[in-house]
From TrEMBL:
Organism ancestry: Bacteria, Pseudomonadati, Pseudomonadota, Betaproteobacteria, Burkholderiales
Catalysed reaction equations from the record: a 3-(acyloxy)acyl derivative of bacterial toxin + H2O = a 3-hydroxyacyl derivative of bacterial toxin + a fatty acid + H(+)
Annotated signal sequence range: 1-21
Superkingdom assignment: Bacteria
Gene3D superfamilies: 2.40.160.20
A GO term for molecular function: hydrolase activity
Pfam families: PagL (PF09411)
Topological category with respect to the lipid bilayer: Multi-pass membrane protein
Keyword check for tRNA processing: no
Compartments (UniProt record): Cell outer membrane
Protein name, per record: Lipid A deacylase
Length: 182
């Protein structure tokens, strides 16, 4: 049910894209991330809007970024530290992301971001527990944008509530990302 809602949301975003002129796009790219952590898997769909800024422009590179709105589904495979006990949760997130890239936005890039996420229920998997629905999600990544506007990337992402409520063991994902830029 949740997967159908996420796919419908992405289809809506893509349809809305055609309603805007080339210079007034609501969404500049869409992506899917697949991630894995200790006995948990995640899939996330995202839509991004580029910033129209270029900081520290030099030698054909600059620092810029984008706003990312995401929805993800997590599958815990050792819920409440019971082997084989599964549980599902979803997260909705908003993240400003800084990206160091070439001026033409093609080729190799490096990025990092810190955003906010809302989990549908408390995370309690393996020996890791998060005591709040609200989480910070920070990531660092490296990727490549091809001439045909497709992008591939690898990311490390950490979720934590910043220590404002215990327990807060955090959870770390290794992720791969595929994106398309309009």
């Amino acid at each position: 049910m949740f997967a159908k809602k996420v796919l419908a949301s992405v289809a809506t975003l893509l349809a809305m894209q055609g309603a805007y002129a080339a210079n007034d796009q609501l969404v500049d790219s869409v992506s899917v991330d697949f991630g894995s952590a200790a006995k948990v898997q995640m899939v996330r769909l995202s839509a991004a809007k580029d910033w129209d800024v270029r900081w520290f422009q030099s030698n054909g590179t600059h620092l810029s970024g984008y706003w990312e709105l995401s929805a993800g589904a997590w599958k815990e495979s050792q819920y409440k530290n019971i082997s084989g006990n599964t549980a599902h949760l979803w997260d909705v997130g908003f993240t400003p992301v800084f990206r160091f890239q070439n001026d033409n936005k093609k080729g190799l890039y490096y990025e990092g971001g810190i955003g906010v996420h809302r989990l549908s229920k408390l995370y309690d998997n393996d020996t890791y527990r998060l005591s709040t629905h609200f989480q910070f999600g920070d990531h660092v990544g490296i990727g490549y944008v091809f001439d045909n506007n497709w992008e591939v990337a690898g990311k490390i992402q950490h979720f934590s509530n910043g220590g404002y409520k215990k327990p807060n063991t955090g959870v770390n994902f290794l992720e791969v990302k595929a994106a398309y830029h309009f």
